[in-house]
Amino acid sequence: MIIPFYYALPSENFEKLDASSVEDRADFMWDDGERETPEIPSTDVDKFFDEIQEAIARETGDADLANSAVFGKEDWDGENVTDGMRINRPDEVSRVAQALNTINQDVVENVANMRFLVKFYDEAAKRGDAMVIMFN
């Protein structure tokens, strides 16, 4: 089973990594992002990502936004160095956070995970963070 893990990456770190090689990105994320730190908070929604994605698409009427929220908008590992590493740039994090804050979060079975993801995106957007989504 694939489970997405979400890392809120401060814009300074993101800009440096975005200009670096895929190997450098993967090394940084595995070395520094694998564990939660105050600088790089992380979360996951366990196996409920598909239910959350469907609810976001249904509630917003925007399947692309739902995919972006759950799986990231851009591939950040075009060389397949990792099991999957995708991103939402800070402007996309803001767009996703705004949309998530408009939906009824009680429409999913595991409402706690949905609420946590909404809060996670909202806090990342307020800080101007990018979002790195890694898969295991």
Report on this structure.
There is one protein chain. This protein has helices at 11-18, 22-33, 49-60, 63-71, 90-100, 111-127; strands spanning 4-9, 42-44, 74-75, 85-88, 130-135. It has 136 residues and is an alpha+beta fold. Strands 2-1-5-4-3 form a five-stranded antiparallel beta sheet. Helix 3 (49-60) runs antiparallel to helix 4 (63-71), helix 4 (63-71) crosses helix 5 (90-100) and helix 5 (90-100) packs across helix 6 (111-127). The longest helix is centred in the C-terminal third of the chain and has 17 residues, at 111-127. The protein is globular and about 40 Å long.
Return Rg in Å.
14 Å
- Secondary-structure-based class equals alpha+beta
Largest sheet: 5 strands, antiparallel
Average pLDDT for all residues: 91
Kindly estimate the percentage of residues that lie in beta strands according to DSSP: 15-25%
Question: First CA to last CA: what distance?
Answer: 8 Å
Outline the low-pLDDT stretches.
Answer: none
Give me the strand/helix succession: EHHEHHEEHHE
Strand adjacency order, main sheet: 2-1-5-4-3
Per DSSP E runs of 2 or more residues, the count of β-strands stands at 5
Helices, by number, come to 6
The percent of residues in helical segments reads: 40-55%
- Give the overall shape, derived from the CA principal axes: globular
